Amino acid sequence: MDALRVPQALFTGYDWGGRAADVAAALWPERCTGLVSVNGYLIQNLALAQEPLTPATELGYWYFFYFATERGRKGLQRNREDLARVVWRRNSPEWRFIEAEFAQAAELWANPDYVDVVIHSYRHRLAVAAGDPRCSGPERKLLGQPRITAPAVTLDGQADGVIPPTDGSSYAPHFSGPWAHHVVPDAGHNLPQEQPRAFADAVVEVDAMT
Questions:
Q1: How far is the C-alpha of 150 from the C-alpha of 89, rounded, in Å?
Q2: What are φ and ψ of residue 156, in 5° steps?
Q3: What pLDDT sits at residue 210?
Q4: 154/191 Cα distance (integer angstroms)
Q5: Per-residue confidence (pLDDT) for residue 207, from 0 to 100
Q6: Please, what are the averages of pLDDT over each run of 10 residues along the chain (210 residues)?
Q7: Strands 152-157 and 9-13, bridge-based pairing
Q8: Whole-prediction pTM value?
Q9: What values do phi and psi take at 38, rounded to 5?
Q10: How far is CA 93 from CA 29, 56, 89, in A?
């Protein structure tokens, strides 16, 4: 934002992008005019990283545990596209993506940093790998699970194969400003791409809250 000389913006995202949007909204509230976040409050609680979740949620996290092993690293290195296809289909079982969409994403998996970044991210999330020491300051702040004060709309996909849809009540306390939650029909984990109209409607909704 600084490089683009954008003083404030409405933040949106899902999965890794949703976590980045949540973190930015929490740490730099003066820059955030509103937030749309798929799957709610996504700031990692590393203090609870070794605590089990519900079995249904743990099942959706199968590849987290796979990537925590050396076998998983080798599997990602050797089978990037095949593994991604399995994840896409399981995470978004009702999404009928076309091969051109998959091929476009696959171009990114050839990045030489791809495997290292993915493996470290999931291992850090499970607290089996240390974070980057250059980020220790923000990470300490995030350990406190800071509230998001900007107006927010959170979304769950009704057919999400990773995180089962909820009514949002479990993370509602993390939002101290105006907040609304919706479950989106016929949407899996990749909600913005599967149901772009619903995602755009959420942006309009949160913008009207300001």
A1: 34
A2: -125, 140
A3: 81
A4: 11
A5: 97
A6: 97 98 98 98 94 92 97 98 97 96 96 97 96 94 97 98 95 97 98 98 96
A7: unpaired
A8: 0.94
A9: -80, 135
A10: 35, 15, 5
Rounded distance, CA 150 to CA 143, Å?
A: 19
In-domain check, residue 122? yes
Joined together, the tokens standing for residue 5 give 């000389």
- Provide the 10 A C-beta neighbour count for residue 162: 21
Assess contact for 199 and 39: CB atoms under 8 A.
Answer: no
Q: Which domain holds residue 92?
A: 9-44+53-209
Task: For residue 178, tell me if it sits in a domain.
Answer: yes
CA dihedral sign of residues 20, 122, 104, 203: negative
Backbone φ/ψ region at 41: left (φ over 0), alpha (ψ -120 to 50), beta: beta
Residue 3 lies in a domain: no
To which residue do tokens 């076309």 refer? Answer: 98
Q: Which residues of 71-92 are buried (b: 16+ CB within 10 A; e: fewer)?
A: ebbebbeeebeebbeeebebbb
In this predicted structure, what is the pLDDT of residue 128? 95
Looking at residue 28, which CATH number applies to its domain?
A: 3.40.50.1820
Domain count, the chain: 1
Tens digits of per-residue pLDDT, 85-97?
Answer: 999 999 999 999 9
Residue 58 lies in a domain: yes
What pLDDT does residue 111 have?
Answer: 95
Task: Return all residues near 59 (Cβ < 8 A) that are at least 6 apart.
Answer: none
How many residues are present in the chain?
210
